[in-house]
Amino acid sequence: MKQTVIPVGYMPLVDAAPLIVAHEMGFAAEEGLALDLQPAPSWSSLRDMLAFGRVEAAHMLAPVPVAAALGLGGAGAEFSVLSVLSVNGNVIGVSRELADRLEAQGHSFAFDDAETAGRALIGAASDRLRIGIPFPFSMHMELLSYWIDALEPAARHAIEIRTVPPPLMADAIRAGEIDAFCVGEPWGSITVEHAMGSLLLPGRAIWSFAPEKVLAVRKGWADVNRPLAEGLIRALWRAGCWLSGPQSHVLAAELLSRSAWLDLPAEIIDRALSGRLTITPQGLQRHVPGFLEFHNGVAGFPWRSQSQWIARQLAARTQLDPADASARAAQVFRSDFYRSALRKTGADLPGASSKIEGAASVETAVASERGTLILPPNEFFNRRFFDPDRSE
Amino acid sequence: MQDKLSIIVVEADRDRAILIVDSLREAGDFEIRVISDPAGLARRIKAHEPDIVLIDVADPSRDMLEELALASQPRDRAVAMFVDRSEEGLSTAAVEAGLSAYVVDGLQPQRIKPVLEAAIARFRVFQRMRAELAETKRALEERKVIDRAKGMIMKARGITEDEAYALLRRAAMDQNKRIADVAQALVTATGLLG
User: Fold this and answer.
1) B182 Cα to chain A: minimum distance (Å)
2) Mean pLDDT in runs of 10 for chain A (392 residues)?
3) Where are the strands (E) in chain A, listed by range?
4) ipTM (interface pTM)
5) B70 vs A43, A54, A136: nearest CB
6) In this structure, are B18 and B77 located in the same domain?
7) In a domain, B177, yes or no
8) Rounded to a whole number, what is the distance in Å from the CA of B99 to chain A's nearest CA?
9) Per the CB < 8 Å rule, is B64 touching A74?
């Protein structure tokens, strides 16, 4: 069978797994696609590679395409999101010094309660707290902002969020440039492994179902290349499905560890895939079910309400009109392509394309095409809801 | 409006930085500053208020510059990626040459063009040199491994160098592998067996 080559850009992170697995395990080939996977040195470069047509699709931080639709950041192009590649997967960590202070205050590093951990962090930070994140438009930024604003709006002025590329995060801690960080895997585990810090909280403790990375294409590309776009969505859906099997963790970790991909010990990668994290240099272990999700709970479905939540957050920080931002963002996550691509696969998709984010504290059955769909808990740590149809 | 354009070049490699600065000087009279250490990059760039920032696309610290575009207050000098206000083709050429440029909003295109053209030309040379260097390094590494493997075979079997090489080549063909890979496997295996 003749295969169509699609150049796809990615950042070498654990959550690039669906792309790597689709390529390595033949899910792309089943769709007649050959993925030409091109690693990028930075998120801004990856965005430009996509904008300039060096690649046709890209592994992207969920807020980047939303920000581009709002005219924020130097994108110079607009994007569409074909699917969500991963849900959750971030960690918040602190420098060794701050970890010592937290411990002295009696914090248990229970790794599950955003309220307790957040108050302990603000308390331990004394006069100022500098937090490193990978990119200004990222779920890292959004989760941190949401967390701090909900806990202690007054603390916001003493907290400075700085962009530090994850490979330079350990150096930034050593140089005293930052006191804490929020990163994706493997970078949290690597910081612990190098004894540069401890992990305080998984991102999912702030929002239990946060869209982390998406598959983005240039706006209009999928309309012109519909068969390719739908083949890509299916290949990634199958890759996510394969990754969600507990027996796949070991093999997936081995695959990703190869020098062509992450070039790291498989054991480090397995921590994120299995949710069994080592959170202190002394070896304290914590198990986080659903730490990083590729498939369960229709993780790949690009909910309009997810992009609208991101847009409201961005609008609030940059003084844009929230209703207008929300309306623009709603056009970015393309559930229509996703539905059409998976129609014949047996996947059960939700009847709606938008939902109230944060409204499910337990597993919830929802109306779906086949009537068998149960969504996992989706809640914010402060029990607030986000209703995209109501302006707050 | 100040008459001299001020340019910041972000480059960790001293020799490369000198070459870029030289080629910019040939293109015009600019005030040029080099930053070689990524620590606190955004803050330090802001302090200098440059008109243009040039940085290698392959430099991961480039993401730090995105803050410049975001944090600009209405009265600040906004710094934006060149792409959205460029002349047709110029920014594409820059990206292909491996260069990213951040430019202060409102700067006249005719003032930017000579800077970009000089930088693009220099970056193209770097890109070629980088590819050649990587290729040379790889070839050198491979030759070293093949030589070691040849030596091991000669010693173990008591054969000549040519015969040892022929043996390696045949093994590679039989297994549909590259000679360097077969040699590497032999060196690793021998190392493990002691």
Assistant:
1) 18
2) 91 97 96 96 91 93 95 81 98 95 93 94 88 95 95 88 89 90 95 94 97 97 96 97 92 94 95 96 95 96 97 92 94 96 91 92 88 90 91 56
3) 4-10, 33-39, 57-61, 79-88, 90-95, 129-133, 159-163, 180-184, 197-202, 211-218, 276-278, 285-287, 292-293, 364-365, 374-375
4) 0.81
5) A136
6) yes
7) yes
8) 10
9) no
